[in-house]
Design a protein that fits this description.
six-stranded parallel β-sheet, Undecaprenyl pyrophosphate synthetase, alpha/beta, binds farnesyl diphosphate, about 250 residues
Length: about 250
């Protein structure tokens, strides 16, 4: 809210934040990048201009996460519900991974970043999936930050698919009911090789999860900001990590 007020007053947000402690950095940060449309509308621009500027914010956040030593960064880029948007907007969004990777892949490689994706590949256009798969192939041996794009991702579908797989194994006699536990379920999800997010950031002032990593976020710290995604900077990322570091995580204990 405060930064929106600053913007309205024609001033930029404060340029400096206290630096987070480097020994208490969240391993996994997940972000719901929201507010592209409203950012564009406020400026009399078409919604796609917001998405395009939103794409540029990704690079800032990757740099900020990498600098702090975050190990996994998951970005909600396109949900299974986003297909309901007008075709022009969907087409534009589908082009963004390719555009982003054309501009940024060299730097990602140089930064030892490993690109990953989670979501349903089958409905995505070939140019989208080819670009992501090519980036995954080129960065597969990298050992630094894992940059995980949630693309055509929906948490309920992910859980239903996992449950169907488990049910099938029970039906075939390969699994007993007693063997079904949190670890087994987690292993069937699209994030099976990632730890659960420690910190979830959502921009634009909306306070909901929007079908994003519902299982994995069970004990994550949530941080919401009024800042629209296209104006999200390294300073905001540092502020989120700083707030995370001030929380006491109890995981249901005392
Ligand atoms: C939500 O804002 C944002 C999206 C649905 C798309 C997010 C995508 C990007 C930021 C770029 C993706 C780029 C790559 C490389 C994958 P909204 O459109 O719902 O905003 P609004 O709520 O203000 O309308």
């Amino acid at each position: 809210m405060i930064s929106r007020l600053w913007t309205k007053l024609g001033k930029s947000s404060p340029q400096k934040a206290e630096m987070p402690q480097l020994d208490k950095v969240p391993d996994h940060v997940a972000i719901i990048m929201d507010g592209n449309g409203r950012w564009a509308k406020d400026r009399g621009l078409p919604r796609i201009a917001g998405h395009h500027t939103g794409m540029k914010a990704i690079n800032r956040v990757v740099r900020a996460a990498d600098k702090l030593g975050v190990k996994y960064l998951t970005l909600y880029a396109f949900s299974t519900e986003n297909w309901k948007r007008p075709k022009d907007e969907v087409d534009f969004l589908m082009r963004l991974p390719q555009q982003f990777l054309e501009i940024e892949l060299e730097e990602l490689i140089q930064k030892n970043v490993k690109v990953r994706m989670m979501g349903n590949k089958t409905d995505l256009p070939s140019y989208t999936i080819d670009a992501v798969e090519q980036a995954m192939e080129k960065t597969k041996d990298n050992t630094g930050l894992v940059l995980n794009f949630a693309l055509n991702y929906g948490s309920r579908k992910e859980m239903i698919d996992a449950i169907k797989e488990i049910a099938g194994e029970v039906k075939d006699g390969h699994l007993s009911l007693e063997q079904i536990d949190e670890q087994l379920m987690g292993g069937k999800l699209l994030s099976s090789d990632l730890p659960d997010p420690d910190l979830l950031i959502r921009t634009s002032g909306e306070l909901r999860l929007s079908n994003f990593m519902l299982w994995q976020l069970a004990y994550s710290e949530l941080w919401f900001t009024d800042i629209y995604w296209p104006e999200f900077t390294e300073i905001h990322f540092q502020e989120a990590v700083l707030q995370y570091q001030r929380r006491k995580r109890r995981f249901g204990g005392l």
